[in-house]
């Protein structure tokens, strides 16, 4: 075959549809499709890929991960790419999924066959230029399972700075651990979104935990913790900084993270032990000043607690209003006036239930199902006598809804269940208590929340029209659903009554 690399068996240099599809495959999918690696080896590579951004930043280079293709050992599949945040990338295009010949990747082939680190510069045909390559055998359980390359463009004669030299030396220490099979660590978490970055600060320690180098940002982080004196050759304990994480990392030979606070400052430390021959010969500490982040977190917690307290007070005030209305209702002689007061009390209690949930939950989203059962219990207690045999059931599930949707929906549900009890199961005469079932069904799909209240009562009159219904309850339902929530109402009367309410939850609400 020609010296140019191939992707998914395609010999051309242009991007094909197959190449594009390869880029969307996860590492385990690529391994299954192109290699003979077993599940444990793939898991080891996933740990490596989850943590190798650190190496890319420290080495100022791109990282590529290769494994032999299952069909022949002279071809290697690119399983992963990491670009540095500390330098310009070599690869503007994504090579993941490419299948490359060993003649175009001589150092990869040599490292794979020898099990030793190989380095030099080589022409990458697809790039059309020479690239400095260091090929690192990836060892797992005494076997080479892949090769990781560190690749960069040739540098000029500029002398690297002290920071650059320490970064590169640290990267070399970690790559030796990769070849020895001691990196990545088996206990290392795959998710590292919150991990400190190299640019935040790096501290190098020797085998006795003494500081041999600290980057300017790391020095600034230590200053935030109150360190004023010189830090060279000092331990963290000498500087008055808690070193539990460091001692744990040295003992367990595993990375440990810890957040240290001093006065109003907070610094996150991630300790990575440097392991040789089964013992720690040093460590790297990534230090990140998280003072501003923690200050914002505290403000958010304070704000959240304040909002919950407001909801709690609103709930109490609404309950007080409901109690006053009940007292007023007891003094009324007119049955119609009493019913109006009782209905108003139930509406107020429905709103109070929403605020009660908000007083317990963080944020402005409400698990709507959490207020459905209390609402049904409230209506049952108020309208269903102990002799009646009316069952209330709930089916389906409801999403978390914003308060501006949940509050009017709570009132709508109260009105619909109340109507189902009062008009679906009227008490015809003394001694003949009604019986039946009221169902509340909920479903969410395509940005629409559907709420149904179904009863198997006497049904609706043949000439019933919601638009012409003069009862206040139905007018409230229509106003809230169609006017405030931008939804729609359907009513079916067949062996009972079904009122179906649909409201959008993923789109902007209709303007009031």
Provide a compact summary of the structure:
This protein folds into four domains: 6-180, Beta-Lactamase; 198-289, PAS domain (Beta-Lactamase), CATH 3.30.450.20; 291-363; 383-512, 2-Layer Sandwich (Heat Shock Protein 90).
Notes on the structure:
It is a single chain. This protein is α+β, with helices and mostly antiparallel strands. The chain folds into four domains: about 5-180, 2-Layer Sandwich (Beta-Lactamase); about 200-290, PAS domain (Beta-Lactamase), CATH 3.30.450.20; about 290-365; about 385-510, Histidine kinase-like ATPase, C-terminal domain (Heat Shock Protein 90), CATH 3.30.565. It is about 40% helix and about 25% strand. It has 13 helices and 19 strands. A hairpin with a 6-residue loop joins strand 2 (about 60-70) and strand 3. Helix 9 runs antiparallel to helix 10, helix 10 (about 335-360) packs antiparallel against helix 11 (about 370-385) and helix 11 runs parallel beside helix 12 (about 405-425). Residues about 1-20, about 190-195 and about 510 have low confidence and may be disordered.
Topology (SSEs and partners):
Blueprint: E1 6-7, H1 17-23, H2 27-34, H3 39-51, H4 53-59, E2 62-68, E3 75-82, E4 98-101, H5 106-114, E5 118-124, E6 129-140, E7 143-152, H6 162-180, E8 202-205, E9 211-214, H7 216-224, H8 244-252, E10 256-262, E11 265-276, E12 279-289, H9 291-330, H10 335-360, E13 365-367, H11 369-383, E14 389-396, E15 400-402, H12 403-424, E16 435-445, E17 448-455, H13 472-484, E18 488-492, E19 497-504
Parallel strand pairs: 14-16
Antiparallel strand pairs: 1-4, 2-3, 2-7, 3-4, 5-6, 6-7, 8-9, 8-12, 10-11, 11-12, 13-15, 16-17, 17-19, 18-19
């Amino acid at each position: 075959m020609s010296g140019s690399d191939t992707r998914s068996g395609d010999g051309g240099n242009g991007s094909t549809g197959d190449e594009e599809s390869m880029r969307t495959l996860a590492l385990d999918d690529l391994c299954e499709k192109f290699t003979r690696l077993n599940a444990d080896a793939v898991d080891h590579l996933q740990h490596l890929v989850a943590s190798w951004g650190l190496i890319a930043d420290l080495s100022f280079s791109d990282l590529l991960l290769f494994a032999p293709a299952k069909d022949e050992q002279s071809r290697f599949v690119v399983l992963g790419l990491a670009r540095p945040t500390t330098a310009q990338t070599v690869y503007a295009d994504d090579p993941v999924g490419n299948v490359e010949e060993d003649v175009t990747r001589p150092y990869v082939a040599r490292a794979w066959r020898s099990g030793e680190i190989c380095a030099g510069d080589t022409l990458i045909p697809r790039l059309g230029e020479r690239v400095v390559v260091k090929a690192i055998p990836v060892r797992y359980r005494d076997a080479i399972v892949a090769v990781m390359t560190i690749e960069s463009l040739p540098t000029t004669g500029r002398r690297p700075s002290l920071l650059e030299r320490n970064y590169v030396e640290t990267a070399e220490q970690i790559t030796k651990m990769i070849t020895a099979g001691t990196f990545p660590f088996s206990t290392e978490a795959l998710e590292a979104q919150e991990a400190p970055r190299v640019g935040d600060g790096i501290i190098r320690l020797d085998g006795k935990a003494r500081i041999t180098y600290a980057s300017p940002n790391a020095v600034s982080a230590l200053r935030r913790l109150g360190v004023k004196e010189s830090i060279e050759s000092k331990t963290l304990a000498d500087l008055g900084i808690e070193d539990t994480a460091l001692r744990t990392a040295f003992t367990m030979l595993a990375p440990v993270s810890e957040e240290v606070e001093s006065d109003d400052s907070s610094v996150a430390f991630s300790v990575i032990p440097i392991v040789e021959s089964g013992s720690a010969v040093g460590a790297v500490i990534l230090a990140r000043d998280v003072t501003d982040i923690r200050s914002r977190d505290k403000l958010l917690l304070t704000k959240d607690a304040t909002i919950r307290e407001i909801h709690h007070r609103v709930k109490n005030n609404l309950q007080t209003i409901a109690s006053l209305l009940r007292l007023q209702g007891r003094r009324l002689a007119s049955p119609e006036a009493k019913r109006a007061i009782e209905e108003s009390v139930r509406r107020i209690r429905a709103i109070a239930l929403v605020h009660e949930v908000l007083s317990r939950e963080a944020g402005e989203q409400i698990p709507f199902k959490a207020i459905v059962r209390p609402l049904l219990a409230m209506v049952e207690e108020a309208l269903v006598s102990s002799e009646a045999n009316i069952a209330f059931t709930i089916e389906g599930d409801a999403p978390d809804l914003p308060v501006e949707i949940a509050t009017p929906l709570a009132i709508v549900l109260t009105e619909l269940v109340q109507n189902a009890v009062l008009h679906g199961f009227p008490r015809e005469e003394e001694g003949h208590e009604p019986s039946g079932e009221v169902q509340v069904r909920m479903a969410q799909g395509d940005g629409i929340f559907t709420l149904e209240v179904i009863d198997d009562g006497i049904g609706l009159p043949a000439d019933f029209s919601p638009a012409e219904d003069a009862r206040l309850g139905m007018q409230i339902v229509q106003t809230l659903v169609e006017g405030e929530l931008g939804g729609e109402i359907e009513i079916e009367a067949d062996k009972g009554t079904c009122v179906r309410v649909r409201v959008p939850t993923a789109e902007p609400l209709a303007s009031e």
